Model the fold of this input.
Amino acid sequence: MSFDDLVKSLDLAAKVRLLTGASAFTLHAEPAIGLGELRFSDGPTGVRGLKFSGGRVVSLFPNATLLASSWDPHALYEVGGLLAEEAMAQEIHVVLGPTINLHRTALGGRLFEAYSEDPLLTGKLAAAYVRGMQDNGIAACLKHLVANESETERNTVESVVDEATLRELYLLPFEIAALDGGAWSMMAAYNDVNGSPATEQHHVINEVVKGEWGYPGLVMSDWFATKSAAPAANGGLDLVMPGPGGPWGEALVAAVHQGLVTEDVIDDHLSRLLLLAQRVGALGAERSWPSSLPRPDSAVRREQLTRLAASGMTVLKNESDVLPLDRSVRVALIGRHAVETIGMGGGSAQVNPPHQVSVATGLSELLDVTVVDGVEVRTRPVPSRFLTDPVSGVAGIRATLYDADGAVLEDRFCPRSTTMVGMDDDFPGTVASIRLAGRVGADGPVELGVLGVGSWTVGDASFSLEADGHGFGEEVLTPPLWTGRYDVAPGFLFEATVTPALPMGLFGLIGHSTPRATVDVIDDAVRAAAAAEVAVVVVGLTEEQETESVDKSTLRLPGAQDALVEAVAGAARRTVVVVNAATPVLMPWLSRVDAVLWAGLPGQEGGHAVAAALLGDIEPAGRLVTTFPAADGAAPAWSVTPVDGKLRYDEGTFIGYRGHYAERAPEPAFWMGHGLGYGTWEYSDVRLAAGDSPAVTATVKNVGARRSREVVQVYWQPDEADEPVRLVGWSAVTVEPGESALVTVQPDERLWRRWDSAASSWRRLAGGGEFLVARGLGDIRATVSGK
Ligand code: BGC
Done:
């Protein structure tokens, strides 16, 4: 039977039922038409599975900016394939990623999930990821459509973006990943765009995406983002997530009966859902799932994740070739991020990995290392540093979920000391209360506490914790907390019970030792640095800054980390700084250190990857995917705070390097595209072939001492007024020392288009202008006139 026949065989109510999820991450099956249950999982740094937390152990991948720093579509194709394996191992059909919003301002809390400030780089890498995943019959989901670049007031903010900017910048990655990558699904965002919710965007979804691009795939809502029945259904939204409740159901059936929505519109949504189901093998006979896929802690997965992480790491500075480190060198390894390396950002991208290798562990396996903990890096206490499950003794806590009669619904181990209850909704009843328990792995004075919205009982104390914001982000992903000082004996069991105030919520236990005085920590670091040949200081951000639901307010490193680096640099013979963060940070100490390695959020094998990069076992051949401003505010777009509910994208298409190059912002600390690797390069014979969108060729010679990978980047500055410089293509080559290679870069035609708002159509920009062949626009190697 054709889709049409299948759809027509169902009555209206049966059709509409299928257009809202059945649970947090599943869809309804419909045996009458051979439709099986479709199962979704979050990506993009690992396939977490059907539970928000407390779910199965899965591989934790390097974060999106680190993967993108490879500028390597082959690497992203590989990532898509590996994520598909992780999905197949769990019988998941759809992985919710890649995130292809742009780095409009460095303050965006979720930039760690997205690739770059550049639409071409983002689109091309996303297309490769999509192909890698979908070649295995697992659907990718491009998110979040569209103009969703920051988190402040994220459920209500209206992004105000002119049509040219929307199309030339923010829609371009979706266009490339949908057309070149053939993505099978997309997710409509939380925010409004130019007056209507992203989930009701007739213009964007119906006219541009499904109309002009001819996109045949499915558009689902972000979780709880759908605000209406008829306007959303008519606006092109195909599927409401999650379910089973929500604004469609009977209201949409009624809207059809009232003539507000035609049944053809419903049929189109359902046909798109059936196409998705067919593509992932959930229509007709259920697909067979492979049985022997690599486990998250298998040697093969560890090699893949180490290599992918290390090769995206980026050498920002390397005076006198202090890197790669000699294996005989005595190292003082300093910093909280050295001992507790941050492998992932916060929010829905989190997964439960089998382990997270710290830099201290990774480097100590290969070198003579003295490890010194660093200064505090958080303002909110982390859920737990040293609580263990009273049942298994493993790091984490035990959560027991009860119904209203006191019967146990589930008893689970929570590896992150938190549990997300409402989203894990496959319980046999409603959760009325939760008992959390953890054994304290220390004695003496400690700080213990709880987090989550509800009524708590902790020992003899009873109190309520309330959220200070509204919505999924504020109440659930960054819930309120309470802590108290305790003096505990070894093996103390800390227990708390909560009656949740929200149907869904994040609940957890907090536990850590009382922090040491900063001055003592820095003294210890200085002593260790002075005694070593090289000091390696690992600094960075945490999930307090790099998270869904919250934006940053500064690019300064949290806590006294800058003071720590300054002090170490003053005492050490050589200082190498490793930055464990996904997005730009300020480096006031830059001129006083010898080398800086940007390490991103390197995933479960982070420490091994940093060690391999520092020693040169794997070349950290990354190039920045976003421009690092030199100071807070020194960027073409900065504020993420809506004014009267509106966030105006007034900088137009001049974000990131485009705006800096046009002198709309001061010279940045580092340009997008910057990255030294371990090679030294000479460029010659840079030429432009004739033609409408001409290819650029260059000969690159590796005059350094090591085999290295060069990324030849071509930017174009049009002659026309008010047109920013733009990346039009790139090509990478790996060259032995002393050898040369001829590189051809074929610019992408789509960067020659300009949206003519008056005519409501594209027009081609005049040729001419200048091609800049550059290693980031701070290091332009050749300029060629366009013809
Ligand atoms: C996020 C999405 C995610 C969804 C499901 C939302 O909060 O914005 O990116 O896929 O939750 O977890």
Q: What stands out?
A: The chain has four domains: 3-279, 312-379+516-616, 397-513, 679-785. The longest strand covers residues 708-717. The domain at 679-785 is CATH 2.60.40.10 (Immunoglobulin-like). The chain has a mean pLDDT of 95.
